[in-house]
Amino acid sequence: MLLENKTAVIYGGGGTIGGAMASAFAAEGARVFLVGRTPAKLDTVANSIRDAGGQAETAVVDALDASAVNDHIDAVVEKAGSVDISINVISHEGAFQPLADIPTADFVAGISKALTTQLITTKAAARHMVKQESGVLLFFGGSDHANAIPGLGNVQVGMDAVESMRRQWAVELAPHGIRTVTLLTGGVVDAFPDTPEFAAARQGIMDASPLKRAATTADVGNVAAFVASDKGRSIASTQVNISFGACYG
């Protein structure tokens, strides 16, 4: 198994993307700790993992509360002995509109929440990884400067900001043996709501790929598990493109 004896913490672990990553990590032998704010969603993912023979635990934690996040990660390390993988895939209020139509407060609020939770959760994990002199910090979404399209509002701006933060973490943490990697996607089609308005978005994502395909949640989980494993140890301080060629990053 790729992740045997590894400990993974997934913030937003009850969501579609977070759940897919958690399931993939657990299937490869990791002990996963799912963090979120909705117990029912966390329990659904955890029970599915346990039914498949994996190890999963849940915790209700507000990722905007630094004290709560730090208390939780300390408890994980005390119980499991280490934190080897950490990823934050918490969804935030994105405004898919032309920039001119978004109220300033709404534009700033979405990006602020994304950056704040990423900073808090990454700092918490990094504190232990530095002591261990090892660990993998995964990020999701990525920055694709070559393919800017209208109507993304503050969503792509927020992802660009997170990717900038990831690059800064990389140069500061690499000397401690910590890898930082972003999964660059052009959109994960089966994570979208099944509505007519999103049907067009799904088709647009597939049309942007030379292969006319798009990543699924299973693809995201499988790639994340490999990147986080020792077999992916040479992948560091970079983005991994899982967009079927739609993104150029």
UniProtKB/TrEMBL annotation:
Protein name, UniProt field: NAD(P)-dependent dehydrogenase (Short-subunit alcohol dehydrogenase family)
Coiled-coil residues: none
Membrane-crossing residue ranges in chain numbering: none
Membership in a protein family: Belongs to the short-chain dehydrogenases/reductases (SDR) family.
Oxidoreductase is among the record's keywords: yes
InterPro entries: NAD(P)-bd_dom_sf, SDR_fam
Assigned keywords, A-Z: Oxidoreductase
One Pfam family this sequence matches: adh_short_C2
UniProt keyword DNA repair, yes or no: no
Any one Gene Ontology molecular-function term assigned to this protein's record: oxidoreductase activity
